[in-house]
Amino acid sequence: MDPIYLSAGRVTQKSDIYSFGVVLLELISQKRVKEKGGINLIAAFNQAYANGKGFRGLLDTEIANECNMKILEGIGKLAVECVAIDANKRPNANDVEKRLLMLWAAQHGKEENIIRRLYRRSPPEIISSSSSNKLGNARIFREGEQKKVTENYSSHLATGSSYNIYKGTLEDNTLVAVKKYFDRYEAGKEEFCSRVAMVIMSPVVHKNITKLLGICLEANPPTLVYEYAARNLSDILHCKEDFPLELRLKIASKTSRVLEHLHSSRIALRHGDVMPSNILLDDGFVPKVTAFTLSTRFTEDNATRMSMVKGDGNYMDPYYRHTNLVLLKSDVYSFGVVLLELITRKKPAGDCPEKYGLVSEFARVYKMNKSGKAMFDEGIATEENIPVLEEIGKLALHCINLKLSKRPTMKEVAERLKKI
Fold first, then answer.
1. In this predicted model, what pLDDT tens digit does every residue of 26-83 receive, in sequence order?
2. How far is it, in rounded angstroms, from Cα 154 to Cα 208?
3. Distance (Å) of CA 159 to CA 128, 163, 167, 180, 181
4. What is the dihedral of CA 118, 123, 126, 127, to 10 degrees?
5. Fewer Cβ atoms within 10 A, N terminus or C terminus of the chain?
């Protein structure tokens, strides 16, 4: 019970935060807050935190292994803040939710039983008790509800490396896309955890980013529910359908604004997998950027070294491929390849795109002719459109420059597309 209530008889929303903090302490220690002849749990954690010694000696030995220490220490620190005597120093419910989700993502699905303990005992401000539970803005589906939405997963849309995507319909007839992981979904755990946490975090919310509408925590493997898009940019580019330059430029411009938004957020985010198949299109051809599996967050340094190279080689920054070093400008390179694909309607095929395929061929033609006209899509290469296509081609060449310092930022790319 909140000491403020005991002393003053006053109940506030922060009283629930205090009580939840006590629950967190009991969860990670497997001890009652006060036991006869035992320690005072709150005082013990407060003292350990004040001394900077960590909480290892207070944790439940059943889960206090090296794999779990980072998340357990994080939960312990959060709990100590929740039980602060000064109510003004306690976090609010939204902060508690976000920090738990960030810990969940950092854990990448390991020791999921810890997270499920937290989920089942979250305070009412975080997860309600109704059938339309929410985690942040995402609806929590029951497994039976999920099967009903997808008619028992009867309408298959696509297959990924660790999941299938099915078409579904909500109660209000809203169409959705349901991502269902394979039984062997270990690779998908990371995406599941990080994607849920990321979408809840406000800096990456944008009207041209696919919305996560719901999740199913009961299902094993889990499922994610996204807003529905009938097709993607690759579908349109590589078919015989009429695709006017004005529409291509609109899609390029809006997509560049999304990447600019990601790169300029307080905690910058590299998308990591920019390619036409990850740019979904609604019925009005409005682009929605999706597939954040390979995303990387940056805080102070705009570079992170990866243990292994991941992504589609046709759109992958050669600098990243050769160094394993992730940069925001790697997205710029990938977007440059997308621009080339938009103006030529050719696939960037090749085992080493900077030497063979669309990237190298366009650069060679432009160097020889001082123009990309020979490679422009005949369907849009009218006399009126040629100046616009040349501008887009020059911008694309700047984006795919092998020298990082010569590449523009996504903000600069977006501004140039706006002026074309």
1. 888 888 877 555 568 888 898 888 888 788 888 988 888 877 888 888 899 999 999 9
2. 28
3. 33, 6, 12, 10, 10
4. 80
5. N
DSSP 408: P
Q: In what helix (H) or strand (E) does residue 390 lie, and over which residues does it extend? A: helix 386-399
CA distance linking residue 212 with residue 180, whole number of Å: 14
Active site residue 273: yes
Between residues 342 and 143, which one has the greater pLDDT? 342
Candidates 179, 139, 138; CA nearest to 160 is 179
Longest C-alpha distance within the chain, in Å? 89
Q: Name the residue among 303, 74, 279 with its Cα closest to residue 82.
A: 74
Average pLDDT over residues 297-309: 53
In whole angstroms, how far apart are CA 94 and each of 90, 99, 107, 123, 124? 12, 9, 20, 11, 11
Residue 325's H or E segment, with its range, is strand 325-327
**pTM for the structure as a whole:** 0.66
State the burial class of residue 221 (Cβ atoms within 10 Å of its Cβ: 0-12, 13-18, 19+): middle
Strand partners, 166: 156, 178
* Catalytic residue chosen out of the listed positions 16, 95, 172, 273: 273
Reply yes or no on whether the pLDDT at 373 is more than 50.
yes
Tell me the DSSP string of 211-255. -EEEEESSSSS-EEEEE--SEEHHHHHTSSS---HHHHHHHHHHH
Q: What is the mean pLDDT of the chain?
A: 80
Residue type for 45, please? Answer: F
Query: Looking at this protein, which amino acid is placed at residue 244?
Result: P
Cβ–Cβ under 8 Å, residues 175 and 169: yes
Measured between alpha carbons, how far is residue 85 from residues 5, 16, 43, 54, 78 in Å? 11, 13, 11, 20, 14
Which H helix or E strand runs over 295? none
pLDDT digits (tens, 9 = 90+) for 222-272: 788 888 988 899 999 999 889 999 999 999 999 999 999 988 876 677 888
Q: Which positions ≥6 away from 202 have C-beta within 8 Å? A: none
Closest-CA residue to 346 (of 383, 375, 385): 375
CA 255 distance to own-chain centroid: 16
Residue written as token pair 């003004």:
88
**C-beta atoms surrounding 316 within 10 Å:** 22
